[in-house]
Amino acid sequence: MSAGRSLRLGVLGSGKGSNLSAIFHAIRERQLPAEVRIVVSDVAEAGILEIARAQGVRAEYVPPGDNFRARLSPESEERIVELLRESGVDLVVLAGFMRIVGAPLLAAFPRRIINIHPSLLPRHRGLHAWRQALEAGDSTAGCTVHYVDAGVDTGEIIAQSEVEVLPDDTAESLHARIQVAEHALYPEVIAGLARDRSFAE
Ligand code: GRF
Known about the structure:
Blueprint lengths: L6 E6 L5 H11 L5 E8 L5 H8 L3 E4 L12 H13 L4 E4 L8 H6 L4 E5 L11 H8 L3 E8 L9 E8 L6 H24 L7
The chain binds 5-O-phosphono-beta-D-ribofuranosylamine.
5-O-phosphono-beta-D-ribofuranosylamine binds next to helix 1, strand 5 and helix 6.
């Protein structure tokens, strides 16, 4: 990375985009030397696309393809790779992206795709991890940022943040507390990677 160049992010998400908002906030506050180049969603009406547009950032909907359920069709995934490449992305940031990443993305961005998951991995992989924590009777929950590999929430852990589970917690209240932790942790971890010059060579 040449001196001073900020890390170029490509963000993939399917939902409301509160983690993307936290990333934009950290960039504005100069806590994160990065630039969001493009945001891609597999959901046409996802809030995350609106958040990107409001910041003047390119926002693209890529239809996921039929009959692939938890995955994108190979064509859709190739299209996303193309968009990320033409945007000069150094690091792919999954922020509520509800698809399992497959071979095209993993091959195009080896060890350059990260995800945030709402549990203290390796506990509670998969969907509704905060509910899994409640049902298991855990006294702590939290979130994890990890590299993405071919599995579901199995990649190498980069950082975690713990939150307390309170006796009167509902799934909603616990999820909300975990999201507050996510909004602090994700920008912090990306800032750490941005300082690692090898990421933007
Ligand atoms: C977060 O809770 C994250 O852990 C999970 O999906 C949710 C995304 O939320 N992977 P948002 O769209 O960033 O608000």
